[in-house]
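Extended Data, panel c. Modelled sequence:
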Amino acid sequence: MKTRTLMLGWEFPPFISGGLGTACYGLTKAMDRLGMPVTFVLPRAMPIRFPAGEESPAGMEGSGEHYQTHLRHMRIRAIPSTLTPYAPGQSQAAASWRRAKATGAATLEALGEATRAVYGPDIRQEVQRYAVRVMEVAEEEEFDVIHAHDWMTFPAGIAVSARTGKPLIVQVHSTEFDRSGEHVNQYVYDIERQGVHAAAKVIAVSNYTRNILINRYGAPPEKVEVVYNGVEFNGQTEASFPRTWPDKTVLFLGRVTMQKGPEYFLFAAKRVLEKMDNVKFVMAGDGDMLYRSIELAANLGIGHRVFFTRFLRGADVDRAYQMADLYVMPSVSEPFGIAPLEALQHNVPVLVSKTSGIAETFRNALKVDFWDINEMANKMVAVLRYPPLQEMLRLEGRKEALRFRWEDSAARVSDIYQHVLSGT
């Protein structure tokens, strides 16, 4: 009999703010294809309403707290919540906390303000309330293992494991050190550490993340397994609309936060435009550094060459990739990086930060230190000026990206479940 999983997550399409929801969807779809029964518990405003004119990629149907999906072996249990994780439009409060930390003026009040700004209102109460409701859901479900994604669900996973005796597996998609650098939110760090030590196994999305868990959280090395993310290739090889503009286009797609390095992208863009005048830069995403990035582009004198689209979803994401001649991921700290694989899915060559999980295992991509804006600019110019280099990165990169399959990730997860359940 296939392992039955009680999966705890904070995002699931179409309710996503970053790679976490995309990763949860890709993994559970692949687990479904392997016949692995999953009950996915998700905090969500009730009843679930999808954006106008958009259906859930999971094909959710139902009412109340129970939702069926088009996935044969998966159900969603939605827990009523008013919380919107990673609430946009509150950049000033988040920035004030970073300034307070940097100047030594941090207070408990500033910490509370920053926590609310980055994670939404009353995050502590919502995380606790989610844990209580998950305990109730667990009494109604049959499962063999508990699989919790990222820190918001760790308290729930720990509580259910303690009550039922079922083993807990936690999957770390990002750590507080990725999100905040050295100025960590102690509340979040403590939860992450507790989850890592309470789990029977810890899944890290890269060796980069595994090393952080071992060195910063004291995780026993034998407990931490690496399972890379994947991407679903749909066979698309050509843009669905013709290119009618003469300029080259460089794309940044991701949350506009400190972790993703948007300011380094803009400083490098300035250098590129000093050498080439036929280049446009697109920054697609939201985050606490959005308005600061807009101001920076203006102050650098390149505002007329940088286009800010805000958060994109669905077909708009596909169109953004199709417009691009190069995708750049200048992350300061990136546990894995699904977006470069998505870019290659659309035949777009990629330039990635060396401080990323994808860089440790991917050969056919240009790599650069996020802080080296001159080298970043030089590599952008090389791709844009020399079609043979662009074509080689595109073709070989796409071939290599085909190795990152969600089915392989799901099979590794299944193996981890079996080892935990058998005690080996």
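The first helix runs from residue 19 to 33. This feature is highlighted in the accompanying rendering.
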